[in-house]
User: What shape does this take?
Amino acid sequence: MKNILSEIVEEKFSTVAEAKGSTPLEKIQAELRIGNFRMSQKFSKGAWNLIAECKLQSPAKGRLNATHSVLELAKIYESSGAAMLSVHTDKHFLGSNDDFKKVRAEINLPLLRKDFIIDEYQIYESRWLGADAVLLIVRILTPAQLKKFLYTAWSLGMDALVEVHDETDLQIAQDTPANFIGINNRNLKNFTTTIDNTLELLPRVDKSRVIISESGVQSVGDVKILREAGCDGILVGEGLVRAENISEQTKLFSEG
Assistant: This one.
C-alpha cells in the first residue's frame, strides 16, 4: 500500500524550491505584517471550538465537494458559528495560495494555513498570505525542526497547531511548549479515519494544552463523544463539506 503522506512530502520539497525562486524570502519578510495571536485570543481551555475546513478534495477519496468554492464554504462557516477556518494550500486537496488570499480578504475569523510545512520559508510565507496559525505535523519534522518552527511562528505573531497521531508523536510534541495539540484521527499512511485514535491518546495529553481532535468527525454523536471525553474542539472538513445542509451541520458542530 502506498504511503500517501510520504509522497506528498517528497513532492513538497520541489514545490517549496519553486516558491523560493519566484518569491524570495527577503521579499516576504519585507512585506509581511506581524500577527497578534488571533487563535490564542479566540480559543481558551475548556471552551468549545470548531475549526471548519474549506476542503474540496482528499487524496484518498477524491472530490468531496463540487458545488461550492473555497470562498463560498468559508462564508457559510463564518455565518454559521465556526470559531476558526482551515484553508488548504496544497494541490492534493485542490488548495492554493490564491484561494487562501481570497478567503483572507473577505473573512474576519482566524485562519489556519493547512499545508505540509517542511521548511521555515513556508512559515514566513504563511504569515505573508495572512495566516493566523500554521499546522506543524510532528511526523514529518525532526524534534529540532518542530521546536524551531514553533518559535518562528510565534516570532511572527502566529499560533501553531501541533499535530500528532500516536504516542511517539505526542511525546515529541509535549517536549515543546506548544499551546495547541491536534490529535489526527487519520492514518497517515492510507488516510483512513477513526475518532478512537483521539479517545485512546487523550489520557496521555497534558491537560493544560488546548486539545483539538482532527478528522473523522461525521456526526453530532461524534462531536458529543469528543467533547465529553475532554477535547476543547474539533477540526472538520469532510464531515461538513459533504453534509446535505452545510450551514446547519456547522451550527450543530459549533455548539458541541
